Amino acid sequence: MSIALEHVSYIYDPDQKVKKYAVRDVSLEIKKGEFVSIIGHTGSGKSTLIQFMNGLLKPTEGRVLFEGQDVFEKGFSLKGLRQKVGISFQYPDNQLFESTILKDVMFGPKNLGQSREEAETNARAALKVMAVPEASYDKSPFELSGGQKRRVAIAGILAMNPDYLILDEPTAGLDPEGRDEILELIRTLNWSQGIAVILVSHSMEDVAEYAKRILVMNDGQIIMDDTPREIFKAYRDLETIGLSAPQVTYIAHALAEKGFLPYDTNVMTVEEAKKEILKVLKK
């Protein structure tokens, strides 16, 4: 099972003499169970790319395939696709609209034809997974904090039993504790249920900690596709397109330049840096 893009492009106004591309000739495949992050500066094409993946946006050129089928061919069920490939956008207020949290999360399953009882069972299970307190289920979602709204928005997708979860800046505006809590819940979904996660983020620390594969976008194209370690080894290349490595990577290189860290400088997380520093101290 996979989502695949074959030479997809999106042109803002195809009738213009000079064509302006949001995405240009992108091909990729993301399989179920992967944890992929998409990074790139503002305007690089990230948001356009993820909207192809569940049929919200039709490419000007190329094909979008789900399980080998063109999602824009006549007869293909886009409704079925959006059950399997869910998107949680950066601003959860845009996805919440019902009078209570429980009703909001039930909306998706009911829209798929589930009975009220089935929808409620699935909604409660999804809210539990996202650690939303049961005592709040009858509250309006608009009474919640930003972090709780994100949990409810993600629960609304999980209640439909997706195979792919696309998250557009899910931790934007959250404090460090709230950010870590949400990302840990998402990582658990990935390894315990096999849900593929596609994370769009500007936080290199989050990407380094959670992703197993990174797609780097620039000017509408994927210019790098590799593991986090290989991507961040090329941090000087990232800097040329307005990106960077995690801060701890720069600290490790600075220590090495001063002669304090003769071991691996290609660390990505605080935990990795700690291990390298302890090696030095023990020696």
Report the β-strand fraction as a percent range: 15-25%
Q: How many angstroms separate the termini?
A: 48 Å
Provide the residue-averaged pLDDT. 91
Low-confidence stretches: none
Percent helix range: 25-40%
For this entry, what is the oligomeric state of its chains? single chain
Shape category: globular
Query: What integer value in Å does the Rg equal?
Result: 21 Å
Strand tally is 10
Largest sheet geometry: 6 strands, mixed
From the helix content, strand content and strand pairing, which structural class follows?
Answer: alpha/beta
Question: What is the N-to-C order of secondary-structure elements (H for helix, E for strand)?
Answer: EEEHEEHEHHHEHEHEEHHHH
Order of the strands making up the biggest sheet: 6-7-8-3-9-10
Q: Number of helical segments?
A: 11
Give a quick set of tags describing it.
283 residues, alpha/beta, 4-stranded antiparallel beta sheet, 6-stranded mixed beta sheet, single chain
What does this structure look like?
By secondary structure, the chain is α/β, with parallel strands linked by helices. The protein has a domain at 246-283. 40% of the residues lie in helices and 21% in strands. The chain has eleven helices and ten strands. It has helices at residues 46-53, 78-84, 101-111, 116-129, 146-158, 176-193, 204-210, 228-233, 235-239, 247-257, 270-282; strands at residues 2-11, 21-31, 35-39, 61-66, 69-70, 85-88, 164-168, 196-200, 213-218, 221-226. Strands 6-7-8-3-9-10 form a six-stranded mixed beta sheet, sandwiched between helices. Strand 4 and strand 5 form a beta hairpin. Helix 3 (101-111) crosses helix 4 (116-129). It is globular, with a radius of gyration of 21 Å. The chain starts with a strand and ends with a helix. The mean pLDDT is 91.
